Amino acid sequence: MSPLSSARIMLFQIKWEGTDSLAEQNLSNEQLARIAVAALESKKGSDIVNIDMRGRMAITDYFVIATGHSTTQVKALSTAVEDALEEIGIRPARKEGFSGGRWILLDYGGVVIHIFHQEARDYYDLEHYWQDLPRVNFSS
Known about the structure:
This protein is an alpha+beta fold. The chain has five helices and five strands. A five-stranded mixed β-sheet has the order 1-2-5-4-3. Helix 2 crosses helix 3. The longest helix is centred in the middle third of the chain and has 16 residues. The chain is globular and about 35 Å long.
């Protein structure tokens, strides 16, 4: 079974509406976040938190935050998300921090994914800044 099998299963669960590709269906930001979470889970990302930013931040609907336990794993998590979404024709508008592997940010517009090394996640503590916002369970 391929490392992105969870993400692929998630893709097939999304209903086809007679289009040639999933990108043509205008996937919702929730669906994009679910695919990203499945990809993170496929590479053993830990402490995955999904924050509903709707109504609080005009530029994005969801923050997805995950942890890798080495810089190699942090990079692998990022690559897994990118591969899963690229498979359906979606690329990040912005990507930051890949070379360092301590905090990688993938900006997909309505979904912003933060992948941290444990020490960086503890230091920046993004969940604390957004503690008043609802969490959403996108785990597969």
